[in-house]
Amino acid sequence: MMSETISGGHLVAKALKAEGVEVIYTLCGGHIIDIYDGCVDEGIEVIDVRHEQVAAHAADGYARITGKPGCAVVTAGPGTTDAVTGVANAFRAESPMLLIGGQGALSQHKMGSLQDLPHVDMMTPITKFAATVPSTERVADIVSMAFRECYHGAPGPSFLEIPRDVLDAKVPLEKARIPEAGRYRASTRQAGDPEAIERLADLLAHAEKPAILLGSQVWTCRATDAAIDFVRALNVPAYMNGSGRGTLPPGDPHHFQLSRRYAFTEADLIIIVGTPFDFRMGYGKRLSPTATVVQIDLDYRTVGKNRDIDLGIVGDAGLILSAAAQAASGRIGDAAAKRKSWLDELRAVETQAYEKRLPRQFSDAQPIDPYRLVHEINEFLTEDTIYIGDGGDIVTFSGQVVQPKSPGHWMDPGPLGTLGVGMAFAMAAKQARRDKEVLCLFGDGAFSLTGWDFETMVRFDLPFIGVVGNNSSMNQIRYGQAAKYGEERGRVGNTLGDIRYGDFAKLLGGYGEEVRDPAEIRPALERARQSGKPSLINVWVDPEVYAPGTMNQTMYK
User: 390-412, pLDDT tens digit by residue?
Assistant: First the structure.
C-alpha cells in the first residue's frame, strides 16, 4: 500500500493555516505556484497585486489590523528584491509578517539559475529571522520557526526562501514535520519585573505633574483597556503616537495632542510606553532634563537607548500598566484629585494651540489650504473609519488635526517613513475588516509610487475612500531644497505633473472626482462613501504652504 504524499507548497499552506493566516498577498512567479495550489486546498485566500512592494506592505498592514501575522509570497530574484522595502518598513515598525521568496532549485545551486540571488544575505539585516528551507520534509517546521521568531521580543518580520525543487517535491506525509496549531509558540506576554512595577507605583503616587505617551506597542499588545484604566484611575494626561492613536477617543478629558512639547518640558514624571527615543522623540532630548523618566517596552534593547532613564521595564504594556495602576491605587491618596490643576494647565495650552489654527481649518482659500482638507477629513471620520496616512507634507498636516475615533484605527508607515504604503494598507484593512470603512489620505507623490494597485482594489471589490492631497510636488523635500539652496533651486527633482487622479480612478473602474473648491470637499467625500467603490477624491491643495512639522525637520537646518 502506497503512503500518502505531500508537496512542499502544500506543507507551506498547512503551516500558514496552523498560524491562523487567512490570506496571502502575492505576485505570481514560476518558483512559487505550488504554494498557491496548497492555499486553494487549505482555504487560504490568494490576493494577487501588481507590485511585490505592495504585497509586503499588505502583509504588514494585515498584521497591524488583525494582530495575527501577515504573509506575502513572491518569486525569486526581482520578486524578492521588489519586496525588500515592505519588509524593511515592517522591521522598523515592529510588525510581524512572513515573506516567502522563491529560489532556484537546490540541484542548480551556484550554477546561475533563473533569478538566483543571495536573498537570505540581503534579508538578514532587516528581519528577525532569515533562512533557506533545505528539504521538503522541513518546510512546515521552518515556517513555524519563522513565525516563532517574529514574536521574539518586539515583533517583526521573518524571511524564508524555498528552492523550487524543495517546493515541488513530494514526500511521504509521515516523514514531514508539521507542527500542530497552538503547540509550537508560547505566550509572549511578560508582566515586567515586580520590583520595578512597585517603584513605578511609588513614582505615580508622589508625582504632581505626570504625563504618559502611549505608543504603537499599546496597540500591538492590545493594551487599550489597560491604558484607559491607568490614565483614568491615576488622573494622568495621555499623549498618543503611531498606532497608539485612538487609544482614548477625541474629547476624552485625558486625551491631549497639541500640548505635548509643553507637557514634556513641565512634567515631573514622564512615562514612555512602546516608543523608542528615535528622531520622532528628538532622540530623547525633548524630555525635561529634571523629570523622572520611565520607559516601558517589549524590547530590552530599546530601553534607555539614546537617553538615560530613571526606570526601565521590559514587557507587555497592558500587563505592566494594569499592575502599576493596581499597585499605586492603594497608596495614591488624594494625589490623583490634586492633579486637576495640572490637567487644566495643559488643557489651556491645548485650547490656545487649537484656536490659533482654526482660521486655516475653515479657510475658503483656493488653492485649498491643506489644513482645511485635513479638517474636513477629521470631521468626516466615524467610529468605524480606519484612517491611513501615506505621504510627506500633507500627512504631516493630518498628524496635527486628524484624530481617529477608536483604537487601532490609525495607520501610518512608521519610523522608516516609507511612501507608497497607502494602497496596500487600505487593501489589507478592508480585506481583514470588511465591516469597517477605510479612508486613506495620499500625497500625490506617494500615490504615484504604488497607485496601480487601485486596480487590485477594484478587482477584489475592496471599496475605500482615497483622498489625494495634490500639489504637483514632493513638497516636503521641496521645502528643504528651497530653504537650503534658495527658491531658484527649490524645484529640482521634486516637481510632478498636474495629474487628475479622479479620472485615473474612473479609468480603472472606481469612483473619482476633482475638487478645487473647499466647500466641495465634504460633499465629494460623501459621494465617495455612497458609491460603494474604491474611490479617489483628487483635492488640489496650495503648493506654497508647508506643515510646521516639515519646516521643523532637523535635516533642513
Answer: 999 999 999 999 999 999 999 99
Enter the DSSP assignment of 179. Answer: P
Task: Tell me what the mean pLDDT of segment 78-94 comes to.
Answer: 98
Per-residue pLDDT tens for 450-508?
999 999 999 999 999 999 999 999 999 999 999 999 999 999 999 999 999 999 999 99
DSSP-assigned states of every residue in 209-232 = SEEEEE-HHHHHTT-HHHHHHHHH
Residue 521 neighbours by CB under 8 Å, 6+ apart: 368, 372, 373, 376, 515, 537, 539
Q: How far is CA 456 from CA 57, 98, 421, 427, in A?
A: 14, 21, 14, 8
Distances (CA, A) of 73 to 56, 187, 328: 8, 27, 48
**Residue-level pLDDT at 238:** 98
pLDDT of residue 242: 95
Given a cut of 70, is residue 36 above it in pLDDT?
Answer: yes
Residue carrying C-alpha cell 491611513: 388
Give the strand pairing for 5-7 and 170-172: antiparallel
CB 447 within 8 A of CB 468: yes
pLDDT the model gives residue 188: 85
Amino acid at 240: M
pLDDT bracket for residue 553 (50, 70, 90)? confident
pLDDT bucket at 422, cuts 50 / 70 / 90 = very high
Report CA 361 to chain centroid distance, whole Å: 26
> Grid coordinates representing 242?
503611531
Q: Using the 8-state DSSP alphabet, how is residue 508 labeled?
A: T
DSSP state of 453: G
Q: Are 536 and 512 in contact (CB under 8 A)?
A: yes
Mean pLDDT of all residues in 370-377: 98
Paired strand residues for 390: 442
Q: What was the pLDDT predicted at 356?
A: 95
In the prediction, which pLDDT does 331 show?
Answer: 82
d(C-alpha 55, C-alpha 57), whole Å: 6
Please tell me the distance from the alpha carbon of residue 352 to that of residue 152, in angstroms, as a whole number: 44
Distances (CA, A) of 376 to 217, 312, 357, 372, 523: 29, 41, 14, 6, 10
Strand arrangement of the beta sheet that strand 465-470 belongs to: 410-411, 385-390, 437-443, 465-470, 535-540, 511-515
Report pTM. 0.96
∠ at Cα 226 (417, 413), nearest 5°? Answer: 10
d(Cα 410, Cα 59) in Å, to the nearest integer? 16
Q: CA-based angle 513:516:522, to the nearest 5?
A: 65
- What is the CB neighbour count within 10 angstroms for residue 337? 9
Whole-angstrom distance, CA of residue 513 vs CA of residue 467: 10
